[in-house]
Design brief:
Elements (H helix, E strand, L loop, with lengths): L1 E4 L5 H12 L4 E5 L12 E3 L22 E7 L7 H13 L4 E5 L12 H10 L2 E7 L4 H4 L4 H7 L1 E4 L11 H13 L6 E5 L7 H12 L4 E4 L2 H10 L4 H15 L10 H6 L6 H7 L6
Parallel strand pairs: 1-2, 1-4, 2-3, 4-5, 5-6, 6-8, 7-9
Helix pairs in contact: 1-6, 2-3, 7-11, 8-9
């Protein structure tokens, strides 16, 4: 078997790639920049969700052992409705011999619903092997994402999350879940909540960062409109900014706190990483 990883330069795909590499499982990264953006020693193909002329590219790759792509990791493009382009590619992948798909969504998606919910339903209708991952919010948003520069240079975290609690999860734990979904002998054919071990407010996150980094980190609570305008002033497209602030607003109202499924340990055999351990491992990101 060989595995195709879309969003090949993304947080989870690169971590899955490392796991596949250690297991000597052939894989191919797919991204808009192709091989030029791939880490050394990892093969890649040019692929763009919004350009279906690139959809054939991964299947033209020659693997050293003659393997064919049989499993695909699906990460949606940043558009309002990714289902049409993703479902078109899935149909092609099935024709090319792919039998298994792991789809990463978010905690708010549901079968047949908004965003990749329609991709989820398409997979079930096709009758292929599948696994749906519904992670909570990434810990890496603080170390690699949009919160990093404000923590590093201003000692502040800006959100519209209020006092909402969130079970933050590490991309490493998400990648391990995806790896199992892609490579386990038996298909999972289900969905999993991918949650961290504790539900934390942003105030609590700031306290933990302050403790481990030995400097004051403050959570600045913004209104939805203040947060939207702040994102847009930093170059985030309006539709993306409003979607992200909607997610923060739902978290403020308790959306993320309602989940408590122990799926990470059930699937991987290990409890998910705590935020304290995550900060200790990544302290250099904020110095």
């Amino acid at each position: 078997m060989a595995v195709l990883l879309t969003a090949g330069t993304g947080k989870t795909s690169l971590r899955i790639a490392s796991l596949l590499q250690k297991a000597n499982t052939p894989f191919l990264l797919a991204s808009r920049r192709g091989q030029s953006a791939a880490p050394s020693g990892m093969a890649a193909a040019k692929f763009d969700w919004l350009d279906n002329t690139t959809f054939e590219n991964p299947f033209q790759h020659t693997f050293p052992g003659g393997e064919k792509i049989s499993a695909v990791y699906l990460v949606s493009p940043e558009v309002q409705d990714p289902a049409p382009c993703m479902n078109e590619f899935i149909d092609l992948a099935v024709k090319k011999g792919a039998k298994r798909f792991v789809l990463i969504g978010g905690s708010t998606i549901y079968l047949g619903g908004h965003h990749v919910g329609k991709v989820w339903s398409h997979l079930t209708e096709l009758g292929v092997e599948y696994c749906i991952l519904q992670p909570s919010w990434f810990m890496e948003n603080f170390s690699e994402g949009f919160h990093n520069p404000t923590i590093k240079h201003m000692g502040k975290i800006f959100t519209a999350c209020g006092d909402g609690k969130i079970p933050f999860i590490s991309a490493t734990d998400i990648a391990t879940m995806a790896y199992r979904g892609l490579t386990d002998k038996q298909p999972h054919n289900t969905s999993y909540r991918v949650l961290g071990p504790e539900k934390l407010t942003y105030d609590e996150i700031a306290e933990k960062l302050s403790k481990h980094l030995s400097k004051k980190i403050e959570h600045v609570k913004l209104s939805d409109e203040e947060r939207t305008q702040g994102m847009m002033s930093n170059g985030v497209p309006e539709h993306t900014a409003r979607f992200l602030v909607w997610l923060e607003s739902t978290a403020a109202n308790g959306q993320e706190a309602q989940y408590s499924d122990p799926d990470v340990e059930k699937v991987t055999g290990k409890p998910p990483q705590s935020f304290d351990d995550f900060v200790q491992e990544n302290k250099a990101c904020w110095t």
